[in-house]
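Case study 2.
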Amino acid sequence: MSATRYRRFLKLCEEWPRDEFKKGRDLGTVLRQKVAVAFREGENTQISDPEKCDQMYQSLARINGNVYRQRFPRVRDTCFTGVTVEECKVLLSGSLQQMDDEKKGLWKTLTERFSKSPEDGPEKAP
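Prediction:
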């Protein structure tokens, strides 16, 4: 019986989409890791609580099948802040943090410039 559960979870992992923008934070990646840990021995894994395992599979399958999105459709694809889905994806992707690192603020630039010791020599203007 655990072999069929294992195969169902593998099929669910194959169907679950990956979000390339959220490397290391993607729900699909976490799901694959959890399944790999839970079924270390593959089809021969002994499951201590089969009912809980089946319930977890059913819940994940409903999420993956968009059951709740279809049951409770949204009027608009925005939230209370008015941010669209595309803007949310950009904010959550981590690329915004990279842009912040690349574009230092004025205060940070000034503190770095004036905190240099005189031994560093004069800095050339850009």
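Residues 28 and 51 are 23 Å apart (CA to CA).
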